């Protein structure tokens, strides 16, 4: 069996390596990234998040996004309705685990979005 998380990044890498192909990933990835952004995009699209926790899967999301040149859109100025709000509500609390992630070439085409 292939781990779905691993398969996501492998597929994304193939798309990113294809000339002229851009990637948009909208996913319930269960990766908590707090307000961290991929270093390449920290100044261009800084993030804020109601979820202040970063977990191991969130660290892996950030690492993979960095390696593939992908930007997390949640909590940036492009998220129009309540930027950085939680996307999951459970008895133990709320978190931001549903992420919108795009390749650099798509950023200028995103006018706004809402999770």
Features:
single chain, 115 residues, alpha+beta, 3-stranded antiparallel sheet, two-stranded antiparallel ribbon, 2 helices, 5 strands
Average of per-residue pLDDT values: 90
Strand content: 15-25%
What is the molecular shape? Answer: globular
Oligomer: single chain
Largest sheet: 3 strands, antiparallel
- The percent range for helix content is 10-25%
Q: Could you tell me the number of beta strands?
A: 5
Major β-sheet strand ordering: 1-5-2
Structural class: alpha+beta
Rg, rounded, reads 14 Å
Task: Spell out the blueprint of helices and strands.
Elements: H1 4-17, E1 24-28, H2 56-68, E2 70-72, E3 88-90, E4 93-95, E5 98-103
Antiparallel strand pairs: 1-5, 2-5, 3-4
Question: Would you kindly provide a written description of the structure presented here, covering whatever features stand out?
Answer:
It is a single chain. The protein has 115 residues and is an alpha+beta fold. The model has no long low-confidence stretch (mean pLDDT 90). It has a domain at 26-98. It contains 2 helices and 5 strands, in the order H-E-H-E-E-E-E. A hairpin with a 2-residue loop joins strand 3 (88-90) and strand 4. It is globular and about 45 Å long.
